[in-house]
Amino acid sequence: LMQLSAQCLKAGVGLEGLAQVLPHFDCRVASYSSWEEARSLLLWRANDCAVNGVSDAVYHIKGSGKAIQALGRREKAAWLWENGHLPLPRHQAYGSVLVK
């Protein structure tokens, strides 16, 4: 990691260049005072996953092109169905929840 950091800095791309070569993920950690607050966030994230999962699936399908990628969620889902790409892989369909 240190060598990659040094190479990125030497190449003039800064540490942002590391994000282009290292795996990374989106993560949120939180504590809530009530179940209602936590449930609201989980419902919002479930909806967000439904939107992002479909877009992610379309984006990663070779040949989907910018025209398909620019469509709305319903149109993308229809395109996925018509082209035999449904059901989505579990991580795109449902996301992941880790609880400690």
How many individual helices? 6
| Net shape | flat
Largest sheet: none
Mean pLDDT: 81
Could you give the order of the helices and strands?
Answer: HHHHHH
Q: Radius of gyration from the CA trace?
A: 18 Å
Helix content: 55-70%
Q: What percent strand?
A: under 5%
Residue windows where pLDDT falls under 50 for at least 5 positions: none
Give the terminus-to-terminus CA distance: 28 Å
Alpha-beta classification:
mainly alpha
* Strand segment count: 0
Give a written overview of the molecule:
This protein is an all-alpha fold. Helix content is 60%, strand content 0%. The protein is built from 6 helices and no strands. Helix 3 (35-60) crosses helix 5 (73-82). The radius of gyration is 18 Å and the shape is flat.
Topology:
Layout: H1 2-11, H2 18-21, H3 35-60, H4 65-69, H5 73-82, H6 90-94
Helix pairs in contact: 3-5
Comma- or semicolon-separated keywords:
single chain; 100 residues; mainly alpha; 6 helices
Brief characterization of the structure:
With 100 residues, the chain is mainly α. Helices cover 60% and strands 0% of the residues.
